Amino acid sequence: MWRCGIISLLGAVILVVAAGMAAAEAADEQLKREFPKTDFSRAVVPLESIVSGGPPRDGIRAVDEPRFDPVTRPRLKL
User: Which among 59, 38, 67 is positioned nearest to 50, based on CA atoms?
Assistant: First the structure.
C-alpha cells in the first residue's frame, strides 16, 4: 500500500518538474520573439525571472505641458 503512495508522489513530482521546465522554455521563446535583436546568451539574471507586461512601446504619453505647483502649496491630493 505504501508503495503505491510513493509511486504516486514520485509521479506528481516528475509532472510538476516537467511542467516547470516547459514553462521556462516557453518564457525563453516568448522573450526571443519580443526582443529579436537581444543576445540572451549574455544574460546575468535567469530568463525565468523576467516577466513580460506593462504598457506597450510608446504606450506612455509624453508630458508636453507640465503643471508646477509652488513649494509653499501642499501637494497632497488623494
Answer: 38
The span from the first CA to the last CA of the chain, in angstroms, equals: 62
Task: Decide: 78 and 58 in contact? Cβ < 8 Å.
Answer: no
Q: Which domain holds residue 42?
A: 8-49
What domain count does the chain have? 1
Note down pLDDT in tens along the chain; length 78 residues: 667 777 777 777 776 665 555 555 666 777 788 888 988 888 898 877 877 778 888 888 888 888 887 777 666 766
- Amino acid identity of 70? P
